[in-house]
């Protein structure tokens, strides 16, 4: 069952893509034009399934959070290598405020 999704920044030569996280710790990249899954990789497994994902830094990194007071940072493009992600535990209020501000600005940039 999906737990989170986000639009990934466009990379030259590719169309728009959506990143979907599910409750079995898998991350799927879906091509928006054809609605086909182009890649499935193992996502971060510490702290439960991802509940919030925010790409930033021009699409080089993705911040994420889980319901278990865990925030992390993963390098894009995702390849399933656990060495390309880091995680930290924090207070729940901090995880929400840290990730909501970039999400709001990312949504504003997408809409405007």
- Unreliable residue runs: 103-112
| Category by helix and strand content | alpha+beta
The shape is globular
SSE arrangement, N to C: EEEEEEEEH
| Average predicted local confidence, pLDDT | 80
Q: Separation of termini?
A: 31 Å
The number of helical segments is 1
Strand order of the largest sheet: 1-2-3-4
Largest sheet: 4 strands, antiparallel
**What percentage of amino acids are in beta strands?**
35-45%
How many domain regions? 1
User: How helix-rich are the residues, as a percent range?
Assistant: 10-25%
Radius of gyration: 13 Å
**What is the total tally of β strands?**
8
Descriptive notes:
With 112 residues, the protein is an alpha+beta fold. It has one domain (2-111). 18% of the residues lie in helices and 43% in strands. It contains 1 helix and 8 strands. It has one helix at residues 92-111, and strands spanning 2-8, 17-22, 26-31, 36-42, 52-56, 61-66, 70-75, 85-89. It has a 4-stranded antiparallel beta sheet with strand order 1-2-3-4, with no helix packed on it. It has a 4-stranded antiparallel beta sheet with strand order 5-6-7-8, with helices on one face. Strand 6 and strand 7 form a beta hairpin. The longest helix is centred in the C-terminal third of the chain and has 20 residues, at 92-111. The N and C termini lie far apart (31 Å). The model is unreliable at 103-112 (pLDDT under 50).
